[in-house]
Amino acid sequence: MIEYDEFENRMVLKLVYYGPALSGKTTNLLSLHDILDQEGRGDLTVLDTKDDRTIFFDLLPFFLTAPSGLKIKLKVFTVPGQVKHDATRKAVLQRADGVAFIADSQLSEETNNSESFGNLENNLEFVGLDIESIPLVIQFNKRDLKDTVSEENIVRTWGPTGIPVVLSSAIMGQGVVETFSRLVELTYDRIDTKHLLEKNHGLDKNMFIQKITGRNLNEAVFKDKRNMTAGY
Amino acid sequence: MIKDNQGIQYDYIVGEEKKLLELIKGPDIMPLLKSAVNAGAASAALVNAEGEILHQYGEADRAAGLIVSRPVYLEGEVAGQIVISGHKDRELLLNAVGELMFNALKIILQCNFKTILATETHKTVVYQSYEELLETNEKLKLSERKYRELAGSLEKQVQERTEDLKRAHAKLLHQEKLASVGQLAAGVAHEINNPLGFILSNINTLNQYFYKLKEMVFFYRTAMEKKDASGKYLEKSKQQWERLKLDFVFEDTDDLIRESLEGAGRVKKIVSDLKGFSHIDEAHKSDADINTEIDRTLSVLTHEIPQGVQIVKNYGELPPFSCNAAHICQAFYNILLNALQAGGAGLVIDIATQNANNMIKIKFSDNGPGIPDSIRDRIFEPFFTTKEVGTGTGMGLNVTYEIISSYQGTIEVESEVGKGTAFSILLPLPQKVKNV
Ligand SMILES: Nc1nc2c(ncn2[C@@H]2O[C@H](COP(=O)(O)OP(=O)(O)O)[C@@H](O)[C@H]2O)c(=O)[nH]1
Ligand SMILES: [Mg+2]
Asked: B2 vs A55: CB contact, 8 Å cut-off?
C-alpha cells in the first residue's frame, strides 16, 4: 500500500504488471484504458522514452469513494522488462498490493518468462513483500499467435500452485479485463482482512469491482472464461 | 523514509500522491487564465477540491452573475475546478472558454505529472545511467515545449472560437426567426399597421379629390356639347374651377401620391427587414445627416402626433454618418412611436443630438408614464410588447436595438415611472485615418 492516511480518510493502492520485455504489459493497460470507461478511470500515462520498449513504466489510475467516504485510489503500474532496468523495477514494485505477471505465450519466449519470474521473486523479497501471500495473477498473453505454449502445458505447470491463470490476447482486448478483475478481487480480499473495507466502510467486494471496472464480479471475471481461461 | 532489505534508502515511493498545487505552477496556468480574461471573461481561477483559490486572474464580477466551472481531474479524481466568471450575456463564450481551458489544463497536468513521475523515479533509481537521464530530459523538454506552445496559441484559439460562436449565434438568431414565423407575423403586422394607416387615409382623400375632378370633367363635357358661342360658359367654368379649388387639388394630389408611395415602400422594406436580419448587412449605405433623418421620421409620424404634444429639438451639428437611412429612420420611428402612444396630454418629447468623442449621441427624452422596473430589462427582446398583439402597439424596440447594434452602436434606456423615459443612442463614427 502506497499510503493510508486515516486523518484524510484516504487509501492509495498499487498494482504492478510485471513480466519480460515486450510481453504486452503496456498493451494490457492500453486495452484496459480503452475498455473501461466508467467514472473514476484516470488517464493513462505512458512513460516510454526510447524505441518501442518501456524504459520507465506506465500508469493507469482509478479512483473511487466508499460509502463511508473513504477515498481509494488504485494505481496500476507496468515495469520495464529489460534486464538492465532492475532498479526501476524495484522502485515500482515497492509497496505493491498485487502483481499481474504477463508472460509471452510464444515458445521462443519461455526462457525470458522464467527469468523474469525469477526476477520477480527476488525483487519481491528485496522490497520486503512475500510471494506466498501477495495477490498474484498470471496472464499468458499473445494467444492469437502461432507457436505458443500449449494450454495443457500451462495447466500442468501452474495448476498445482493455485495461482489464477488467464489466457489472453491483449492486443485484441481479450482476457484483459479478466486478468485485471481477478487481481483486483484478490487484492480486495487482502485489504479487507486488514482494514475491514466491508464492515467499516460499507464497501463489499462486488461494489469494489463494480466501481473499478464498471462491471459486476461475474461479468468481469467469467465473461470470456470459456475461450480464454486455462482450466486451473 | 523507507529502508529495504539491503539498506538502500528511498525517499520517494513511486505512485506517491501529488497535490494539484505541486503539479500546476503559476507559469503554467497564468497564461491560460489571462487568455480567458482577454477572451471576455471577467475572471478565471483554479481552485482545489477544498474550494481554495490556487491561482486567479481578473476580478470576479458579482453583478454579472454567471459562473462557469469545469472539473480538473487528477488520476481519475476531481482534484479541483476551473472557475470562470463573466457577464450572463456571454454564456456561450464562457462555456467555450471553459471547454478550452479544461482541455489545455488536462494536457498541462498530464505533462507535468509525467515529468514529476519520471524525475522523482530517477532520483530513486540509483543505477540509472547519466546518459539515459539526459536523453529522458531531452524528450521531456520536447513535450514541455509542446504544451507551452499550446498555452501560447490558446489566445488565438479562443479568438477563432469566439468568431465561430459569433457566426453561430448570428445563424441561430436567423434560425430562431425562421422558426417563429407565427410570432414574426404578429410583429410584422404591428410594424405594417402604422404606415398602412396613413396610406389608407391618403387614398381616401385622393378618392374625394378624384370625385371633384370627375365633376369638373363632366362639366366641361356638358359645355362642349352645348357649343358655347356666347362665351358664357367659359366664364362659368372659371368660377367653377375656383369653387372646387382645383389648383390646390392638383398640387396636393401630387404630394399625396408621393407620400403614399413612400409609405408603401416602407411597408415593403419593413417586411423584408423582418424576414431576415441579414438584409441589414447588405443594404446600401450612404452618407446621411442624422438630424435630417430624425426630421424625416417625424414628418412620417405627423399623423400620430396628437394636438398639444410638444416636440423640442436640440440638434447639434453632426458629421455625415454612413448608414442605410431607411433603417436608421426605422430605429427612430419605433422609439418615437412608443413615446407618442404611451404619452398622454401635455407630452413633451425632447430630441437632442451631439457630436462628441467621435460618436454621434442621440437622446430621445419624454415626460410620459415611464417603463416599470419589472419590464425595463425586457423591452429590447424580440416580440416583447406591453399590449395585445393586434392593437398595433407592440414596442418594436428589438428592431431598433438590432439596427443600432448593426452599426456597432449602443442603446440604453433610463426610465422612472411617472417621470418619463430617455433612450440614449451612441453611434460610433469610423476612425479618422491619421496623416503621417
Ligand atoms: N500478436 C500479439 N501481439 C501483442 C499482444 N500484446 C502485445 N503485443 C505486441 O507486443 C509488442 C510489445 O508489447 P508491449 O505492450 O509494448 O510490451 P511491454 O514491453 O510488456 O510493455 C507490441 O508490438 C505489441 O503490439 C497480443 O496479445 N498479441
Ligand atoms: Mg511497455
From this structure: no
